[in-house]
Design brief:
The chain is α+β, with helices and mostly antiparallel strands and 101 residues long. It folds into two domains: 48 residues, no CATH class; 32 residues. It is 30% helix and 21% strand. It is built from one helix and three strands, in the order βββα. A three-stranded antiparallel β-sheet has the order 1-2-3, with no helix packed on it. It is elongated and about 65 Å long. The termini are far apart. Bound molecules: zinc ion. The site of zinc ion (ZN) has 7 residues, from β3.
Length: 101
């Protein structure tokens, strides 16, 4: 049995998308999945985030997202400040909130 993978229901699909913990369809939010051998075939085992909250990967994903957003905000502010001084418009790709700089 493989390790769990974690993903968003939006834009991804694995097997029947029926949660093996509560029996309902996984339609939105995050879920985890892994491949499982069943009578010689590989099937996907899928579970809602809410049905496996003990999985520490969710908290790790949240922390990663927060760190990513913080980094992008800091990068945006730094690029906006640099652009103001040096007039380098190539930095526009990194500036998300010019007014906030
Ligand atoms: Zn469920």
């Amino acid at each position: 049995m493989g390790n769990w993978n974690h993903t968003e229901a939006r834009g991804s699909s694995h097997g029947t998308m029926r949660c093996t913990a509560c029996g309902k369809q996984v339609e939105s939010g995050r879920y985890r999945y892994r491949q499982k051998s069943k009578r010689g075939d590989w099937v996907y085992q899928v579970q809602h985030e809410a049905c496996c909250l003990e999985d520490s990967a969710w908290a790790a994903m949240d922390a990663q997202q927060v760190a990513h957003e913080k980094r992008m905000a800091e990068l945006s502010a730094a690029c906006a400040a640099f652009k103001k001084t040096w007039g380098v418009s190539e930095l526009d790709d990194y500036i998300f909130d010019e007014a906030g700089a």
